[in-house]
Design a protein that fits this description.
The protein is α+β, with helices and mostly antiparallel strands. The protein is built from six helices and nine strands.
Length: 270
């Protein structure tokens, strides 16, 4: 494995909003991830997305850390984690770990910033540092993530219904795109017959959480008896229809299987 110049890549993220760690992941690990994702898609009967953000020809598997030891090495990988720690700090947390397999003839994903639901004036210090692992080659033709360089310095997040100039983050399998959470980006259109497969390994700053861990400290049977507002206050809910979800659902579904909570991908264009 090549030595990674973390300071150089950190400087690129500060300047451009993103960087690419080429060939940072061992081929054996890439192959193991690909095999596990194929297995999980069949075992869990994962369907393609049903909205423009997730894609209509894209398969996503969420919460991967519960689906096998292979994925345990992803958040702590020695060629990626130290860079995320520089962007945020060593107290960072895993925000999410999921897979994204863009199928043939998929349309481009609406442009967005991963922190745009956080209500803070922009630009601001990084609260989120996300990465996309290339499990297959990422090319302009097969849906490589498209980015707007230096957009992490913008004073707003993008309007997902407007067109913007972007460039493809092309990289060979085993490479990793690491970027500031304010960077404008989106999955590209897949104009080939083959899938573009990647992992979204996302981190957030460690101080964005409760002082006491309410979900672990309060037994679920007790929380189930709480009034709806108290459930929300101790964490059984989602912020801005997204933040805090579990497998695309509000955690209140763990207390009440019949709960009907609208998620961000259910919101229609005005």
């Amino acid at each position: 494995m090549p030595d990674v110049d973390f300071e150089k890549h950190h400087a690129l993220i500060q300047e451009q909003g993103y960087t690419i760690l080429e060939n940072a992941i061992e081929p054996e690990l890439v192959a193991a991830i690909a095999a596990d994702l194929e297995r999980l898609e069949k075992e869990l009967a994962i369907d393609e997305g049903k909205n423009p953000f997730e894609g209509f020809k894209t398969v996503r598997i969420y919460n991967l850390l519960v689906h096998g030891e292979t994925f345990e090495s992803v958040p702590v990988h020695a060629n990626v984690l130290p860079l995320a720690e520089r962007v945020l700090d060593p107290g960072l947390l895993v925000s999410s770990l999921s897979s994204i397999a863009i199928g043939a003839d998929e349309a481009p994903q609406p442009l967005h910033a991963d922190d745009q639901l956080i209500p803070l004036p922009k630009p601001h210090v990084p609260l989120v540092c996300n990465s996309i692992w290339a499990i297959t080659d990422f090319t302009d033709a097969n849906g490589a993530t498209r980015v707007v360089p230096r957009s992490h310095r913008a004073e707003k997040s993008p309007n997902p219904f407007e067109a913007h100039d972007t460039i493809p983050a092309e990289m060979p399998a085993g490479s990793v795109l690491v970027y500031h959470g304010s960077l404008w980006h989106g999955g590209g259109a897949n104009r080939t017959a083959a899938r573009r497969v990647g992992l979204a390994m996302n981190y957030c700053v460690g101080w964005v959480r409760q002082q006491e861990n309410q979900q672990l400290g309060i037994p679920r049977d007790i929380a189930r008896g709480f009034a709806p507002r108290l459930r929300e206050l101790v964490g059984y809910g989602v912020y801005n229809h997204l933040i805090g979800h579990i497998d695309k659902q509000s955690p209140v579904a763990l207390l009440d299987a019949g709960a009907d909570v609208r998620m961000v991908w259910d919101i229609k264009k005005p």
